[in-house]
Design a protein that fits this description.
It is a single chain. With 430 residues, the chain is mainly beta. It is 10% helix and 36% strand. It is built from 4 helices and 28 strands. Strands 1, 2, 4, 7, 9, 10 and 13 form a 7-stranded antiparallel sheet that branches. The longest helix is centred in the C-terminal third of the chain and has 22 residues, at 407-428. It is elongated, with a radius of gyration of 27 Å.
Amino acid sequence: MELILSHLWHITLAFTLLISLGGFAGIALLPLGLFDARVTIHNYYQYRHVDKPGWKVGWTWTKNEIILSMSGAFAIQQGNCSSYKFQYAHSCKKDPEIADLGSDASTQNMTDGCCRSGILSAYAINPAKSFSSFEVTVANLGMNAHVTAPQNLTLMAPGPGYSCGLLEDAKPTISSDIGGRRQVQVFKTWKAACTYSTFLANKVPVCCVSLSTFYNPNITSCSMCSCGCRDADKTTFSCIRQANELSQSDFMNSLDIVQCSDHMCPVRVHWHIKNNYMDHWRVKLTVSNYNYKRNYSGWNVLVQHPGFSQNSMAYSFNSSVLPSVGFSEKVALFWGISYYNEELLQVNDNRVGSVTTEILLKKDLDSFTLRNGWAFPRRIYFNGEDCEMPLPDDFPMLPNASSTLNPATNCFLLLLIFLAFKTQLIFTWP
């Protein structure tokens, strides 16, 4: 399983940050101690998006640089600019932290690819909205025209979990202008990659998987304490669940208030085998939100299942089969339909927020079997987070000929035996 997981993460690539120093205008300004740069954040993760409150990116200047002006984003803190001749600079912090503007930004503060409130789509879902850009004018370089890349690059998207490499020299890129009608050769380009680790981001899992079938009345619930254990007080309906470690200012957001349950997960994914037909079967996939404080916008579910090697159809979700490397099982990505179910609503006192679809999976008749858990998914991810799966020993089992079966089940088995015997007679008839 670890090999499969490593391959899954291998195909997703990573965030890439490009910092390109300006074209001819930037070169002309360099002797005066200024340069222009465009910073672009590309999200190449196939099934991990950046949700509200959006990304934040930061770095540390190697000299005495300051941000004179910005468009398409803003520095969260201006810092103390009293010791600089540019006292009205946008930010004089040694380690500025940058956030995206919203769509309500004024026209003069906008630039191409900006102003999405820090939200980036997963690359496999919407490549056109999987990147964000902003422009910055850097000052206080003195008369030295040599510029160096910032250090200590950080990315919060949102919360922890991302580790960034060094900004290194890359082949100078070509920048677009006038709505893409003009191409401008930039002076210099730096590039860095930031990768995500769920182990750094979450102390405990954030989702779990439950299973059920048409042939077994028992439901395999999420494992006990999948995402933490319930408080000792059994009378309350809402439980406080420790989540990501954020800064003190974000302390309230670091606590999840979820509906109390045995699994204590904010999200549950339920896989139900609904019908078994001759050449396909029908599955019902339901995603439930137990969080009282959060809606999940632009959610997605990734399912690793051998059945996706054949044709499949989802009725109420968008879907796409992603390429896999090193193993035969396919992975399918599901996400909501615009203006219909792309937002997974939070739980309230009356109901749990949920989205659901039915999926038709075509059987590979040479390999299909309901035994050994074949009809169940191998792994499920919600918003790129690995969900806790039940142990294989807890999967719903096929009925057998024991005395505990009801008469309808016994008739079903007798019919199967009769059909098998009849088929055998037909094939062995002289």
